[in-house]
Structures are given as C-alpha cells and as structure tokens.
Task: inverse folding
C-alpha cells in the first residue's frame, strides 16, 4: 500500500509539473531563447517541490487516505480545463475532463466543490467573446444561463452521477435514514468555526514557507491572474478550498485534507515566475527552490520527531509476536498489549 501511495505521489508530481509549466508559458511576457530551458526547469522544480512538501512526504508515504489519489484528478482536471480556457483543446479532451469530474467526487467530497468551480470557469469563459458593454450589462445572467448548457452542464452532470452512485451504494448498505443521519452528524462536527483561525498555522505545518510565497506571488502576479484563462484557472484551483473553510475542524485535525492547497499555489507562483523578466525569472526559480526545499525538509523533520521511536516499537512488537507464537495455545488465545 505504501508503494501504491508513492506511485500516486509520483503521478501527482508529474501532473503538478506539467500544470506549472503550462501556466508559466501562458504568463510569459515574451518568447526568448531563455524559454528553451525555462519550461523544463519550471516543470522539474514544481514536481520536486511538490514531492518535498512536508504534507506530501507524509500523505504520499506509508499512511494512505483517499485524498492521496484524489490529487490526480484534481491536477489533471485543472490541466485539461486550462487547455479549454486557452482554446487549444481538441473536442475529445472534454471526455477525460468529465472523467476527472466523476472520479474526484467519488474519492473525496471536495470533488463536488471542484465540479462547481470547473463549471463556473467554463461558463464565464463561454461568455468572454461577447461585446464588452453587453457582457457587463448582463454578466451574471449570461453566466448563470451558460452553466446549464454545453460543457458546464456536462461537468455538473458528471458530478451528479458520482453523487448518485455514492448515495445509492450507502443507501443499499446502510439504509437511507441512517446514511443521512450519519452524514448530517459528521458534517456538523467537522464544521466547528473555532478551528477556522487555526488553518493558517495548519497550512504552514503542511507546506512550510510555501504559503508565504503564494501570497507574495498573488500580489506580484495579479495582472497575469486577471487574464481570462489564467484568472479562471486560478478560480477553479481555489474553489476546492471552500471545503476547508466550511469544514475547518476536519482540515485542522487531518492534515491530508490540506493537500489540495498545492493546486492554487502552483498556479499563482508559476504565473509570477512567468510574468517576471528573464534574468529575474532565473534568480526567482533558484531562490524559491532553495528556500522552500530547506524549509520543507526542516518542517517534515519536526513533524516526524515525535514518531522517532516508532521503528524500535515495531521491532519490540514483532519480538513479542514471535514469542507468543511459541505458546502451544497461541491458536486459541487472544493477546493484548497496553
């Protein structure tokens, strides 16, 4: 299981690198000789930083949660969405995007929020070609109408299908009333507002200094993030974070629920790198990589410090198990340890 989880992490890192390289290329102010190495460099740096983030080192490690494989449809879905927003996607590419919008909610509840963000981004994009004055006058109405036709409607249908499959499965196994009662209780317990103020520290624990760089990048790249394609991609990447805000207790106590923050950070930081001048771009990549790599390793080391005795405890438990097997009555005994 740990190997499978590591494979999920490797695939997610590759997708993160591809998304980051695409964002940088779109945000670049000019095309120069420097671009020949900039794309592969950004791809490698983003993929490495993704894997070296404290949360990824832990959540793509020996502890498996559905949030680990859920990073794949999240990042792949954003990459496919970005191609549609830039009008370079082939018609068949809608199918894998819809598959992502079905698989993500099937793995994790945040996927339903993600589907809403993707549908909204596609709806706003579909109205972007209209005359500016007319678009301002009826922007909200036209966007609302666009959600219920074409690709946005297909995205919502994919999410609805995933919801139908989940509800049907649990209703058959548990019954409708017990399922709804359990769902309501869990949602209520995870939505305690007192944990909302803890989340900034939680993101620092999960990503080291990266959230600070993210905030700086949002400020420096605000012009790039206002463009239609990049802005809508950033909106779709941020949308899943609504779940962290609504269910702040769960996001605080269970660190793997914060993995999704990697997506908007990739978009904003790579937009910042792409919009910088070429000399500044090279220095930025080198400086950001060095600082974040050091902070991530230090943060991860601090997180696992309390578990440093775990190998010794495992060895002791294995010795006790071997000794117990020597008992002739071991097959009909129940063993316990405090």
Result:
């Amino acid at each position: 299981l740990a190997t499978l989880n590591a494979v999920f992490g490797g695939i997610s890192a590759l997708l993160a690198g591809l998304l980051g390289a695409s964002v940088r290329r779109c945000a670049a102010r000019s095309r120069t000789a420097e671009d020949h190495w900039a794309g592969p460099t950004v791809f490698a740096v983003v993929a490495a930083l993704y894997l070296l983030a404290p949360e990824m080192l832990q959540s793509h490690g020996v502890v498996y949660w559905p949030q680990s494989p859920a990073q794949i449809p999240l990042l792949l879905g954003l990459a496919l969405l970005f191609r549609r927003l830039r009008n370079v996607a082939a018609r068949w590419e809608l199918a894998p995007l819809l598959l992502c919008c079905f698989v993500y909610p099937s793995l994790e509840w945040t996927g339903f929020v993600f589907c809403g963000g993707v549908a909204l981004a596609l709806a706003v994009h579909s109205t972007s070609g209209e005359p500016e004055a007319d678009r301002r006058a009826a922007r909200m109405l036209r966007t609302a109408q666009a959600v219920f036709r074409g690709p946005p409607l297909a995205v919502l249908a994919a999410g609805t299908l995933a919801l139908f499959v989940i509800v049907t499965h649990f209703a058959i196994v548990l019954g409708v009333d017990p399922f709804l009662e359990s769902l309501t209780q869990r949602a209520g317990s995870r939505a305690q507002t007192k944990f909302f103020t803890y989340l900034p520290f939680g993101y620092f624990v999960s990503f080291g200094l990266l959230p600070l760089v993210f905030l700086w990048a949002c400020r420096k790249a605000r012009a790039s993030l206002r463009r239609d394609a990049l802005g809508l991609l950033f909106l779709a990447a941020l949308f899943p974070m609504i779940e962290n805000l609504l269910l702040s207790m769960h996001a605080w106590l269970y660190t793997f629920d914060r993995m999704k923050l990697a997506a908007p950070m990739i978009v904003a930081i790579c937009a910042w790198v792409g919009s910088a001048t070429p000399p500044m771009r090279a220095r930025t990549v080198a400086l950001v990589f060095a600082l974040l790599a050091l902070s991530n390793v230090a943060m991860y080391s601090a997180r696992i410090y309390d578990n440093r005795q775990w190998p010794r405890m495992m060895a002791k438990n294995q010795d006790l198990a071997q000794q117990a097997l020597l008992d002739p009555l071991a097959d009909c005994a129940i063993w316990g340890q405090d």
In short: The chain is about 75% helix and 0% strand. The CA atoms of residues 127 and 135 lie 7 Å apart. The mean pLDDT is 82. The first helix runs from residue 2 to 27.
